[in-house]
């Protein structure tokens, strides 16, 4: 079946450094790729998303890149802060934007002050 | 707008009992999605509903699980004869359209089966 692979599963960085999380997907029809941040015991919150008609999107310290040919997309966080510590999930739509979301298994990001 | 409301936040059930999880979507949202999250895992899609209709239930286990979204009232995820493996966090999300870009998650219901 369709799946989304996410790496690394854990990531530890020093405050101020950059963090990169990578995902690959299998469904060539996927055209919507959101990223969620989930703090312990809380709901997943959408932090950024990208659609297949663009290759890159940026929002302040967060950026996402998409390579449709290679079927992978990445989250980049610059100038990390301790409050960025959380679990980050990537997801890909199945069957286009009308389809379901398949999530990666998550990356636990720890930002050390 | 109070956001997506789920209740209860925590639910403990003994094996064999029934669990009912409720999700009230954001005002103006008629699309509801249910996801299950096991410890240390990502979210797994279960079912997508619009008012009075199940649009996609491809992620629902074939037995013991059912969902509804009546014309009036919250969406209900029902698990009959719960087993320990049902212990998980159940999240619902709602959106005003079928576009996932506008989907907002509730706080989740943490089900523990003892």
| Total count of helical runs of at least 4 residues of chain A | 0
Q: Secondary-structure element sequence of chain A?
A: EEEEEEEEEEE
The 3D shape of chain A can be described as: globular
Number of helices of chain B: 0
Largest interface: A-B, 23 and 23 residues
Structural class of chain B: mainly beta
Shape, per Cα inertia axes of chain B: globular
Overall structural class of chain A, as computed from helix and strand content, comes to mainly beta
The percentage helix of chain A is under 10%
| Rg of Cα set of chain A | 13 Å
The portion of residues forming beta strands of chain A comes to: over 45%
Residue fraction in strands of chain B: over 45%
Low-confidence stretches of chain A: none
Q: What value does the Rg of chain B take, in angstroms?
A: 13 Å
Number of strands of chain B: 11
**Cα end-to-end separation of chain A:** 41 Å
Q: Tell me roughly what share of residues is in helical segments of chain B.
A: under 10%
- Main sheet properties of chain A: 6 strands, mixed
Comma- or semicolon-separated keywords:
heterodimer, A: 113 residues, mainly beta, 6-stranded mixed beta sheet, 5-stranded antiparallel beta sheet, globular, B: 114 residues, 7-stranded mixed beta sheet, 4-stranded antiparallel beta sheet
Break the fold down into its secondary structure elements and pairings.
The complex is a heterodimer of chains A (113) and B (114).
Chain A lengths: L3 E4 L2 E5 L4 E7 L6 E7 L6 E7 L4 E4 L2 E6 L4 E6 L8 E8 L7 E3 L3 E6 L1
Parallel strand pairs in A: 2-11
Antiparallel strand pairs in A: 1-3, 3-8, 4-5, 4-9, 6-7, 7-8, 9-10, 9-11
Chain B lengths: L4 E3 L2 E4 L5 E6 L6 E7 L5 E8 L2 E4 L8 E4 L6 E5 L8 E8 L8 E2 L3 E5 L1
Parallel strand pairs in B: 2-11
Antiparallel strand pairs in B: 1-3, 3-8, 4-5, 4-9, 5-6, 7-8, 9-10, 9-11
């Amino acid at each position: 079946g369709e799946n989304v692979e996410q790496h690394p599963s854990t990531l530890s960085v020093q405050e101020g450094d950059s963090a990169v999380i990578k995902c690959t997907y299998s469904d060539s029809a996927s055209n919507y790729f959101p990223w969620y941040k989930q703090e312990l015991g809380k709901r997943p919150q959408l932090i950024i998303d990208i659609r297949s008609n663009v290759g890159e999107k940026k929002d302040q310290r967060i950026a996402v890149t998409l390579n449709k040919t290679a079927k992978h997309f990445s989250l980049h966080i610059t100038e990390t802060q301790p409050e960025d510590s959380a679990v980050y999930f990537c997801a890909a739509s199945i069957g286009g934007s009308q389809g379901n979301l398949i999530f990666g298994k998550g990356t636990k990001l720890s930002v050390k002050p | 707008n109070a956001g997506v409301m789920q209740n209860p936040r925590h639910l403990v059930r003994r094996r064999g009992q029934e669990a009912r999880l409720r999700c009230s979507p954001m005002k103006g949202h008629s699309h509801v999605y249910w996801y299950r999250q096991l410890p240390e895992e990502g979210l797994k899609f279960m079912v997508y509903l619009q008012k009075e209709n199940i649009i996609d239930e491809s992620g629902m286990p074939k037995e013991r699980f059912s969902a509804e979204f009546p014309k009036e009232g919250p969406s209900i995820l029902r698990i009959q004869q719960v087993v320990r493996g049902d212990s998980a966090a159940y999240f619902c999300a709602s959106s005003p359209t079928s576009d996932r870009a506008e989907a907002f998650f509730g706080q989740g219901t943490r089900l523990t089966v003892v």
